[in-house]
Amino acid sequence: MEQKWWHDAVVYQIYPRSFCDSNGDGIGDLNGIRSKLDYLQELGVDVIWLSPVYQSPMDDNGYDISSYQAIAPEFGTMQDMEALIAEAKQRGIRIVMDLVVNHTSDEHSWFQQACESKDSPYRDYYVWRDAKPDGSAPNDLDSIFGGSAWQWHEPTQQYYIHLFSKKQPDLNWENPKVHDEVHRMMNWWIDKGIGGFRLDVIDLIGKEIDKGITGNGERLHPLLKQMNQATFGGKDLLTVGETWGATPEIAKLYSAPERDELSMVFQFEHITLTWKDGDKWQPIALDLPEFKRVLTKWQLELADQGWNSLFWNNHDLPRAVSKYGDDGVYRTKSAKMLATVLHGLKGTPYIYQGEEIAMTNVKFERLEQYKDIESLNFYKVRTQAGVSHEEMMHALGENGRDNARTPMQWSAAPQAGFTQGTPWIEVNPNYTEVNVEDDQASSDSVYRYYQSLIALRKRYRAIVHGDFIPVLEQHDKVFAYLRTEGETRLMVVANFSGESLTVDLSEFSQSSAEALLSNSGRTTFDFNKLELKPYDAFMIKLSE
Ligand code: TEU
Ligand code: CA
């Protein structure tokens, strides 16, 4: 496969509202991000994926855009944005923008005009349908945020579709004018020197509403080819699609180089394993054998015909160390174990802000502490359907998106050094122990462990391009695998449990072993009877 710069890049995701507030209004902003570029450069990341900073009423914290070529005043100015792109570039860091074009905000001028009359030239920028004879919605499609996906518009006597909040009307991707408007805007941003796009719920733009089809419609890939050719194609940019419904087969359609669509996609099969029957509000415990099977499947099936993104969390998901590790006594050790397993895999790794210091879920006690529209909508919908307050509060504590959106914890100073003012959402009370300043002063620093992992990725081509070979595949508590290329053989071994155990790796007993990285300072290994302490993880270089 032809080498691309983003094959061995490491991406850091910033949720701007919660990263760093530079002007004391309690909301993170662009100048706050600029003040932390040295921190990110030292970590060793090559790309910042910046969640939306465009003008927005903030119904969905910026994923509801009212003007694509203007910066939301609470985040700063276009000059601040241009300065961020330039200063990041000076540090060898590219800025990947979040492209949210399945829908706009209802406050976008296109939608405002579409609502004026059925004859508006913008009417067909959106998806309108008549009510059924009895006045009810055209069909029973539900919003992903709970409730019906149809909103009645009284003045023009039609429904419009919104797969997310009713303030996020879906764009009509059957309308060539929408294609042209979006492509023009994308090229405007490309001309500003950005490093690429993260494409929000891009699998939905091929929707066929009257057939009840939302994801993976038959027009989806032709639309992506067309977008590629009209904008980022041939410009060596990183493009990553958010595709909740992707299987490895579908992921190849998006990311096989010869298809000229995207660089890679975010798939969520490993994430939804802890959702009972696909319902995120019924959280269930991690089943490691299933988790290993899914991750192994994606490594083997996408090996040379596409490209994996690698992530445990993002701004929509719970904190990795709480979800898949142990955010109590083994917080830092299990966070390092998770990082070792992820960064040893084949693909482009994504670090979500705070993951590099093992920030944890917040599990608020009171509903009012939560801000996320999805959580608040589902609390209403589910409790009205009879689910108890306690059960929904447990579900929000486990899988609510605000777990990832509490302010970045920079120090043990008030408000974790995130703001001089009152933060828009409460800081996780554990900021007094979990923060950048204390982590960097500690001999057990998680940040420095991530630095070492990122440096290893740059040093060993086998990590980026080597084959993935499962080891101890049947073990129900240990995840182990080889990465091989030419003479190089690296092995990752990770104890995903809080128990001490012994494993038999005698097939490697003839090899000498050099510990490239270990989360317990361990440097020697008896492969015949390898003892693993709770959450032990290491990457070993094997040589004959
Ligand atoms: O997310 C799509 C999406 O379906 C998840 O947000 C949703 O929360 C799901 O239940 C998984 O938790 C994208 C963005 O990442 C998200 O922040 C936006 O709210 C959403 O699209 C609408 O733009
Ligand atoms: Ca601010």
UniProtKB/TrEMBL annotation:
Keywords, comma-separated and alphabetical: Glycosidase, Hydrolase
Superkingdom of the organism of origin: Bacteria
Pfam families with a match to the protein in the record: Alpha-amylase (PF00128), SusG_C (PF23915)
SMART domains named in the record: Aamy
Record GO biological process: oligosaccharide catabolic process
GO MF annotations, alphabetized: alpha-amylase activity
Gene3D superfamilies: Glycosidases, Golgi alpha-mannosidase II, Oligo-1,6-glucosidase, Domain 2
InterPro entries from the UniProt entry: GH, GH13_cat_dom, Glyco_hydro_b, O16G_dom_2, SusG-like_C
Domain Glycosyl hydrolase family 13 catalytic: 13-405
Family to which this protein belongs: Belongs to the glycosyl hydrolase 13 family.
Protein name: Alpha-glucosidase
Organism: Vibrio chaetopteri
Taxonomic lineage of the native organism: Bacteria, Pseudomonadati, Pseudomonadota, Gammaproteobacteria, Vibrionales
